[in-house]
Amino acid sequence: MPASRSMRLVESALRCYPQRWRSRHGDEATEIAILLIRDGTPARSIAWSYLVGAARARLVIGPRRRLGAAAGALLLAAGSLGVPLALLSSPTPANAASVAHSRAARGQTIRGQPVRGPLIRGEPVRGTGQGAAHQIAAAGHDRW
Amino acid sequence: MAAPGRDGAGGQDVLRRAGDASVLILTSLADGAKHGYALIQDIKGFAGLQLGPGTLYGALDRLERMGLIEALPAEDRRQPYRITAAGVVALRAHLDSIERVSSVGRLRLGLGRI
After folding, report:
1. Is the ipTM of this complex over 0.90?
2. What is the value of pTM for the model shown?
3. Residue burial B76-95, b: 16+ Cβ < 10 Å; e: rest
4. B54 reaches A (C-beta below 8 A)
């Protein structure tokens, strides 16, 4: 690999370090890379070592940023597990229960079948008034 | 700064979790101050392995945060480091710990003590 190309590779890896690190160690790190390449160390391996070092340097964070990092990590983990955020904030199941019961109360049908009220603990819901719909909605909330 | 323990059997080995690179660097600095490239060359000479420069700087930063080494005034672009008194104590405790493990291992292998 030509020397200029090798150094470009190493310098790209060094740019991954935080600015504070580069201002302190950057010049010496470049010089060490030049000397190691001159000794026969492949530039790729030097660049890789700096790249891993840069990742580690960025993982060392101050105590004030740890809370934010922890919250971010939790959100990322929830996202990667496929947990829909809607489940965490929306009362959709309760709404569905109250809609089903409202249809039953009004004698509506679905595909020709009369809509029966949802079951709570195996018992059909008795009563057809608005109060019963509220009971079911409340039961839905309790279950979620 | 992590407080290094006493040396000897009851001493706390603060280097146990610091990694091999940290121990190699402290060992190299035990006979005098060195900068990064000199450390790499010295370690290659006595341990037979070449530390990657990224590994070297990570270990130097960690040891400096622990108070086991300190940076000396830079010479041109080179930053020399030297071992501190706490670093000497920590290295001695770690070497004692390794020696105990080494002795037991040799005895159990029937090799005896060197």
Report:
1. no
2. 0.63
3. eebbbbebbebbbbbbbbbb
4. yes
